[in-house]
Structures are given as structure tokens and as C-alpha cells.
Amino acid sequence: MVAFVSRLLAAATLAVGANGFYIPGVQPQEFAKGADVTMKVNAMTSIHTQIPKDFYRLPFCEPEGGAKMASENLGEFITGNKIQTSAYKINMLEETFCQKLCQIVMSKVESAKLRLHIKYGYHNNWIIDNLPSAAVGLNAASGEKQKHYAGGFPVGFIATDTKQPYVFNHVNIIIDYHQHDPAIDTYRVVGFAVEPMSIAHKFEGDYDWDGKSSEGAAKALSTCTPKQHMERGMIEKNQIVDPDQKILYTYDVVWKPSDVAWSSRWDIYLNEDHLVPAQVHWYSITNSILVVLFLSLLVISILVRNLRRDIAAYNALAALADEEKDEEYDETGWKLVHADVFRPPENMPMMYCVCIGGGVQLIVSLFFIITFSAVGFLSPARRGSLMNGILVFYMLSGILAGYVSSVLYKAFRGRLWQLCTVITAVLFPGIAFCLFLLFNVILYFKHSSASAPFLDVIILAAMWCCVSIPLTFLGAYFGYKQEALEFPTVTSTIARAIPPPQPLLHPTVGILIAGVVPFAAAYVELFFIMTSLWMDQYYYVFGFTFIVFLILIITCAEVTVLLVYYQLCAENHRWWWFSFFAPGSTALYTFIYSVFWFKSLEASRMVMTYLLYFGYMALICSAMLLVTGTVGALTSLWFVRKIFGTIKVD
């Protein structure tokens, strides 16, 4: 059974998954022999602090005339990318051996900064032809060289014995190239890796260079072998980080031919050289499918059998004369609440409509984001595109939020429709924007590159105020123009008293139980998503994500319908908020999981790290509450209308 489901899912995922991330309009860059190959530097990152820092904040070599910004779009700035030019000179197919870049004499402040960044595990992130740098290091177990394709390479290291910090002041820049057409003397970059080393350089004859004179720049180094690329075995002494230390930065450039085509060059980055086997995702999806199948069979066996029996009994009773009804049958079960089941929520009916409208907006946005990512339009190969896609789809979906909230509010006979529309337009996006703005201000004073420029913040606010909010009002206009939603039964003037429930049928118990099943169905894939979010790993299996998204929706719908049925059988007609919070408790379990998962970051003791992680996880879980709650609420509304529409009520 498991093997069959796995094969079925493989076919489905191949249909929606993306094999390549290059779409028409994206052209490869061709380099002639000797042509300049530009290398850029991105912000430094650390999974322990979650606070990106500007590359030139540390004592590194700057290009002549100063570094210039190379970031291109809004998504790059919002996600903390700060791409700038570098001082490294690289030419196509020209090998470089121990090339001197610059020499820096560290002050006490610079030394303290560098030591702190090494302690916090900061990594450099370099880019050549839109390819991020892989890191070449030694495997701790085997001692052999191993590449890691995500997260860049470390700034330095802490010695295990002396606990002293050492900086990686020499790099072997290893570039793979591919000649697309042998008849044309041009080449394409298809791979990029950096092997960092720490070398306490010395000049021949103990020459003391001031870092400026041309004589010193031409002087040979005794720590390097002419016309030979640097190897770790050649290092005599590492470069320690101390005040007044002279740090000489050098680099090698190594060119290697490759058979990898330009269109496939991102594959090894995305699958981490098969570090995580695809079978892990397959077993995750298979288990989730089996959960859904089991739950579906359970819902069908309980609901269909019971509902057929109940509906037949109620309709048979309705056909009897009044005297026969009194003699033969006492009305029990969910039909008893027919005069109250469509009564508007007793608590905050407007907020209920706002939450459902916001949830629909998020569901539609997620659907299009995952779909476009699966077909390759939004991918890691196009830096910032995913964030741009999220913003565009979410703001355009505002028209649906306004429409759904207005239709529900009109059904509840609400009169403050302007206020309902305003709250729908500003509640969740307003909370998200204020949280982003708060963190942006704090990160600005922390001198972090994650702080978006003021102009980009203005653009975000303009997109929200000039696009999203008007679209929400437009949707609300069409919603209020529609005929009011009709219910199959008439609501009584006085609400029916709700009898005390049995312990297992208490709404709080149902809410806590309901979220377990959807969370279990998406648990494994959630781990990979968390790793991508907080550990600088690439996430690209959007075909799997699409399937998990569908599984999550189906599971929430089935669990909620089952629990709402039992609540109605217990004569509890207050199902509106129950149907929202029952599947919404999936967000609670996700947040609890994130608390335990936080330990894997080995986070620093900086307060900002905790604020960023738990602040954004709370926002993500709030969005999950709206999504899962909306699925449960709308499914329950359909279910309740359906069953009460099939019985005859006086």
C-alpha cells in the first residue's frame, strides 16, 4: 500500500514540480577568455544571531573608490540581502596564485568586532554570476574535503585548544566553467566554491610592508609557493586576531572545466549534493496521505451512517400527525438546535467575519505562491523573487478578503459594514507591517543589513495603502451588493439553553484535540521549512509543499466537520467560533514545536535574536491560525447548511 501511494505521489509531484529554475527571458552570461568575471559580496549571516551584518563592517579589503550597492529589487532588501562590489579581480580562465589583495593593521575596536563575529559564527556570502559561494571544508570524521552549498563560508574559527580566534585571510576561489558551443570561444560559469584558510603571511627576507608601497605589493611571500595553489598542508601558522596585528589578505583563483549545463547549475545547490535523500520527503508525504485516508474513512463511516439514520428518522417524524408525534417519538439530537444553529456568533461576530476574510486572502495567496514556485517562476535562483511574489499575491488577494467578510457580515445582519471592511483591510497586514517596522528600527540601530532602507519601507506602505486596502473595499462593495446568504431554517427570537456537555464533548477539549491530526500530517515537511527559514538552507521542493498544503486543508476540513457534528448532537449551537479555533489549534502546536526547535539554532544570548525568532514565528503561526481556522469554518458552514437543508422543519 505504501509503495503504491509513493508511486502515485511521485507521478503527481513530477507533474507540478520544477525540474529547472530558468524561464524564457533569463539568458546565460557568456565570458570570453580573459574577460572580467565580477564577484560581489552579500551581507554576512549567522544562524546563532539571526542578524545579518554588512560585509564591510569588518576589517576587510574594499575596492578602489569604495563599495557600491548591487542589490536590485525590493525583495532582496526586505530579506536582508545587501549585495555590494568587491576588491577581487577575476578573469575568465586566468589562474591566480597567492594574489595580494590588501594589508590591514587592526585597531582594538576592529579586533574586538572581528573576534565577536567569529565567536557568533558569522559566514561570508559571495556571489559570481548570480551563483552563491559553496564552502569547501574538511569532514570532521574522515578529514576529507567536503562542499556545503548553503550558508556561505565562515569568517574565521575558534581554536579548540587555546580558544583563540583566527581569521580566514586567504581563499581559494574555485570556479567551474562550461563551454556551451565548442565553435565559439566563450564560456559560462556553472559552479562557484570558496575554500577559506588562515595563514600568518610572511614576506621573504622578513620584509615589513606598510600595505601601500608598490615594492611590497611585488615582493614574494615565503608562506606561498610560486605557481602552486595553496593547500592546507602548506600552512605553517594561522592568522590570529589581536590588536595591532597586520593581516594580509590573499587569494587564489582555480578554474575547472565542467560538463554541467548552465540550466542545471543550480541543481546541486538545491539538493545539497543529495545530503537529504528524496525518500525522506516521500515517506513524509506517504504518511500524511495515509493519515488523510484513515481520517476520510472515519468521517465517512461515522457521518454518512449517522446522518442517513438521523435524516430518515427526522423526515419520518415530520410525516406523522401531531398526536402520533407525541405518542411515538421524542425529538433528540442535532435537529433540536434547528432554530438556533444559524444564530450569529454571540461573541464578536464582526471579528469572526474579519478573520474569515483574512484567512481566505492568505489561502489564495499561498496557493498561487506555492504554484508559481513549483513551476519555477519564484525560486532561489532569482534572489528576492519569492518575497516579491508573496507581497504581490497577498495584496491582490485583498479583494477576496473584502468580499468574503462582507458576505458573512451581511448574513449576520451587521450594520457597521464600513468598520468591518476597514478592520479586514488593516488587522493582519497592519500587525505584520508594525512588527516589521519595529524590528526594522531596532536592526537599524544594531547596524544590521537586514534593516530595509527608508525608501523601501515607504514603497511597502504605499503598496498596502494604495493597492491592498482599495482592493479590500472593492471586494466589500461587491459583497454587500450580493443577496444576503440564505439559511435553511428560521432563527428563533430567544436562544436555546445549552446543556452541560460531557467531559469529552467539551468545546475546549475538542479544540485542543483537533489540531493534533493536521499538525502530525505536516510535521516532517515543517522541519525542512523551518530549516530553510532559520538556518540559511535552500528550500525548493515546492511540489511536495503543494501536496502537504492540500493535505493540511483536507485534514482540517474533515476533523472540523466531525467535531462540529458531535457538538450539534450535544445540542451546542455555538459552533461558529468552535469551527474556527478547532483546526486553528494546529498553529498552537506549531508554535510549541518552534519553541523546542529553537534549541537547534544554538542561539546567542542577544535579546534581539529571541525577539526576531519568536516575533516572526508568532506572526507565522497567526497566519496559520487564520488559514486553518478559515478552512474549518467555511467547511462547517457548508456542512451545517447541507444537513439542515435536508430535513423538514416546522
Which short descriptors sum up this protein?
4-stranded antiparallel β-sheet; 650 residues; alpha+beta; single chain; elongated; 17 helices
Describe the structure.
The chain is an alpha+beta fold. Helix content is about 50%, strand content about 10%. Helix 10 (about 400-410) runs antiparallel to helix 11 (about 415-445), helix 11 runs antiparallel to helix 17 (about 605-645) and helix 16 packs antiparallel against helix 17. The strands form four sheets. Strands 1, 4, 8, 9, 13, 14 and 15 form a seven-stranded mixed β-sheet that branches. Strands 3-2-6-7 form a four-stranded antiparallel β-sheet, with no helix packed on it. It has helices at about 1-15, 75-80, 110-120, 215-220, 265-270, 280-320, 320-330, 350-375, 385-395, 400-410, 415-445, 455-480, 505-515, 515-535, 540-570, 575-595, 605-645; strands at about 30, 40, 85, 95-105, 125, 125-130, 130, 135-140, 145-150, 155, 155-160, 165, 170-180, 185-195, 245-255.
User: Which stretches of 5+ consecutive residues score pLDDT under 50?
Assistant: 1-25
Q: What is the beta-strand fraction? A: 5-15%
Question: Whole-Å distance between the termini?
Answer: 49 Å
Class from secondary-structure proportions? alpha+beta
* Overall radius of gyration: 31 Å
Number of helices: 17
Percent helix, as a range, is 40-55%
Quick one: biggest sheet? 7 strands, mixed
Number of strands: 15
Q: Overall pLDDT, averaged? A: 85
**Apparent shape:** elongated
